[in-house]
Amino acid sequence: MNGILISLEGPDGAGKTTVLQEILPEIQKMKREVVPTREPGGVRVAEEIRQIILDPKNTEIDSKTELMLFAAARRLHMQEKMLPALRAGKVVIVDRFIDSSVAYQGYGRDLGVEVVDWLNYFATDGLKPDLTLYFDIDTDVALERIMKNRADEVNRLDLERAEMHRKVREGYLEIVAKEPGRFVKIDASQSLEKVVADTLEVLKKRFVSEF
Ligand SMILES: Nc1ncnc2c1ncn2[C@@H]1O[C@H](COP(=O)(O)OP(=O)(O)OP(=O)(O)O)[C@@H](O)[C@H]1O
Ligand SMILES: Cc1cn([C@H]2C[C@H](O)[C@@H](COP(=O)(O)O)O2)c(=O)[nH]c1=O
Question: Which residues are recorded as binding ATP?
Fold first, then answer.
């Protein structure tokens, strides 16, 4: 496969989605076609699974069911959208991917890293990002952002106790430390302008010949 896979990761409220929208005009100047997408979702059936997973009324979804729903959505998304784009040499930039399952289900839900790594491998046949930008932020600051700016859009995961969100962040920090070659950590507590500038700097430095 000769495409490039970039994933964006971080706790809820870190600003990934906002940053992706901001950087798109600049990265669309890359020599290759850029395909922005997200998980869970990205294709029709995976977006339907997303609705089920994130609906606050679906309180009967337990941790293992949740993990498998994310994996099913990932498989659909990868087969239908990500792999064809990567095979065509495009740049796929995905808002959340395998590391979200490790951080949220592995650490946050206490299912453990081993089982989540295994299921991620099963769902993706071992596909890994070339680069993962990890947007790091203190849990309380991130939750405050969500409640302040998009309280009308909170989903089932956003509504989890702060304790789970803290475990998710600690999980991310452990994952990032384990694979320094793949991850770049970005301080997401800065102003949006600075976070966007840092993100573009990393991308332009890493993919210098692509711009
Ligand atoms: N650097 C920033 N400073 C202050 N507010 C920000 C910053 N970045 C994003 N925000 C705001 O914080 C809120 C959360 O941002 P956003 O939805 O992009 O985060 P996210 O990481 O995609 O979260 P989630 O994973 O929960 O969807 C939004 O209302 C956004 O406007
Ligand atoms: C892919 C994936 C996501 N999650 C969680 C993380 C967020 O709380 C939601 C997705 O909402 P967003 O607004 O698109 O960030 O789902 C998860 O727990 N496990 C995963 O694999």
Answer: 10-17
